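Tokenised fold entry reproduced for absentees:

. . .
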Amino acid sequence: MTVGVSRALELGARGVICASTGNTSASLAAYSARAGLDCLVVVPAGKIALGKLAQAMMYGAKVVAVNGNFDDALSLVMDACTKLGLYLLNSVNAYRLEGQKTIGFELIEQRGWRLPDWIVLPVGNAGNISAIWKGVKELRRLGIIDEAPRMAGVQAEGAAPIANAVKQGWLEEEIIEFVDKPETIATAIRIGRPVNWKKALRAIRESKGTAVAVSDSEIVEAQKLLARLEGVFVEPASAASIAGLRRLLEEGIIDRDESVVCITTGHGLKDPEEAVRVCEKPLEIEPRLSELEAILR
């Protein structure tokens, strides 16, 4: 997002705008505040985790909720950019993708230039999977790396147009069937018409990768496992990458002796309501040692 906002400043934009399921709005609002730019955020009404919405509002963005889903919000935003002269900063913006591709640079650098066999990541609007693959290809073209990891995109079953296209064998034809009413606990990837779908299918095809859809129950289980085994608390959409890895291991697509990097894109406190809903409730007792001992027993 820093790349996109910097470009907006360079172009003399009067303001910036995005449609969002939450994370994009938070980062755009933050960097717009730092840059001194007016920021307008359009979100689907009643579909955004409060932890994300709170950030955008605190950073001073004007938040507008539309009666519809993310795809309706994005359509409105793109129309507004054309007619109102605002600078669009969704991942359809090429400069956003130039920023996002540095995830690939950083990932490989931090591994001491040792490539993983797979990169597994959640897919919503499909900016990350296509951008990271772009970064990997550039490193290979420059001769910094010789091979390339395989890309695996993970979607929720209720919002899985890309995973469904892969399952149907439509990679070569670049055909997709959008989901008109996407639904999933993973709000950040609750997107039925991803704008970067062609680039995502291309990344999967070129890397000899795949895409898979996982259920909400698998996502919640992965979210808890990551927190309780590794001490890493992520939002449901981020846990989708872990759920997807488990599914790909079970199906034998990824071997257990292969190295895998899972991308997790958002902290769990961005969606605290969902975490509280799926976890065990606190136990209430009187402040007596005997009652605490009874629980411990």
Notes: Residues 101-277 form a domain with the Rossmann fold fold (CATH 3.40.50.1100). The chain has a mean pLDDT of 94. The longest strand covers residues 38-44.
